[in-house]
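Private note to self, pasted from the team thread so I don't lose it. Backbone tokens:
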């Protein structure tokens, strides 16, 4: 098997998750050397901290500004050119150790799950210093101009709308592969819902509603949870706060309702078990989390999407009949209550989720890349 270098950037968790999923898929097919590298580790400390933290700060503290920047840099040609040129200059200057990595690891295939390393890789390629194929995996259901390069060897996208956006921007349709967004390959393996519930001490006799709350404000989560607990329909509300210790403390005093069980956890290592055993997931619209949930055929209520890419992800869920998106926090319990009362609605969304899910996406990407590599080797 060829040496494969997979580059991501820890701006959020999705890009790294996709990179690790691809690594697993390559290693399952043929044992070989696959290396996953955070591109930010190849940059100076000040750049690494500023790059990652600025995204978190802007999207959480100034979401309207982020939304405006995302939209304008995507649709205004002059603004897009200016921001792209500035970004590319900063990135190519800052990724100081990438050439050393390429010279020492000698990858035969390079895959990027974030646009950060693309400009420097392509500069080397244009100068004839990088003959290896370069692939790009887009981890949302939107192709922002930041992702668009016409001289790479292939794109892997999650949906038709991303493919169409790339084509409109001048990318050849021949190099775009609609595989789905890569997720952990083990999610393709069926799981026994009842066995999971027994193992995780979750009631067997009522609908399970999972609230992925880590990236949402305490006030919003408290509003949603406290009203879900008042619903007349029986159920079990399982809140996952992730690594958000402030949220975990803020909601620790919540109590079960008359007919609604309650479980609150912080970080857990069995998210897929929880999704597989659930009847409905309430979540933000990160590209990886919604892909993992779709792969298990679980319907969603999307809340609090980040303006820009998460709005596209949320709309993708709605268009595919796999869930709904709600702008008003107060409407979430009402919607969940209706779904619990009208099981046919939930079943219809479950079918939509299963149809949209791509549990083998990582395998599909690996298969296409290895097939192309083998065809060139034996040409």
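Design output:
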């Amino acid at each position: 098997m060829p040496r494969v270098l997979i580059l991501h950037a820890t701006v959020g968790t999705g890009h790294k998750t996709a990179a690790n999923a691809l690594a697993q898929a390559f290693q399952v097919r043929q044992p070989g050397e696959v290396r996953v590298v955070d591109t930010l580790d190849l940059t100076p400390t000040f750049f690494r901290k500023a790059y990652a933290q600025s995204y978190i700060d802007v999207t959480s503290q100034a979401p309207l500004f982020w939304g405006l920047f995302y939209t304008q840099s995507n649709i205004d040609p002059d603004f897009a050119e200016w921001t792209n040129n500035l970004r590319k200059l900063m990135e190519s200057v800052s990724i100081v150790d990438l050439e050393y990595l390429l010279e020492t690891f000698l990858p035969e295939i390079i895959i990027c799950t974030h646009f950060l390393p693309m400009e420097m890789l392509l500069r080397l390629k244009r100068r004839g210093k990088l003959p290896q194929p370069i692939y790009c995996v887009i981890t949302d259901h939107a192709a922002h101009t930041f992702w668009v390069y016409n001289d790479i060897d292939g794109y892997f996208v999650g949906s038709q709308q991303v493919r169409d956006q790339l084509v409109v921007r001048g990318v050849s349709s021949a190099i775009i592969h609609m595989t789905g967004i890569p997720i952990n390959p083990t999610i393709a393996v069926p799981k026994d819902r009842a066995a999971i519930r027994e193992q995780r001490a979750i009631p067997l006799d009522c609908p399970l509603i999972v609230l992925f709350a880590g990236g949402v404000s305490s006030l919003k989560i408290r509003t949603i949870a406290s009203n879900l607990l008042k619903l007349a329909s029986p159920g079990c509300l399982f809140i996952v706060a992730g690594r958000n210790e402030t949220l975990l403390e803020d909601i620790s005093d919540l109590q079960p309702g008359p007919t609604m069980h309650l479980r609150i956890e912080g970080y857990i290592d069995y998210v897929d078990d929880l999704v597989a055993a659930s009847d409905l997931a309430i979540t933000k619209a990160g590209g990886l989390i919604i892909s993992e949930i779709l792969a298990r055929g679980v319907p969603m209520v999307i809340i609090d999407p980040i303006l820009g890419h998460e709005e596209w992800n949320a709309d993708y869920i709605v268009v595919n009949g796999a869930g709904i998106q709600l702008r008003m926090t107060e409407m979430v319990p009402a919607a969940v209550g209706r779904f619990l009362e009208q099981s046919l609605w939930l079943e219809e969304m479950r079918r939509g989720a299963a149809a949209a899910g791509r549990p083998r996406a990582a395998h599909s990407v690996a298969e296409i890349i290895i097939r192309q590599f083998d065809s060139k080797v034996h040409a």
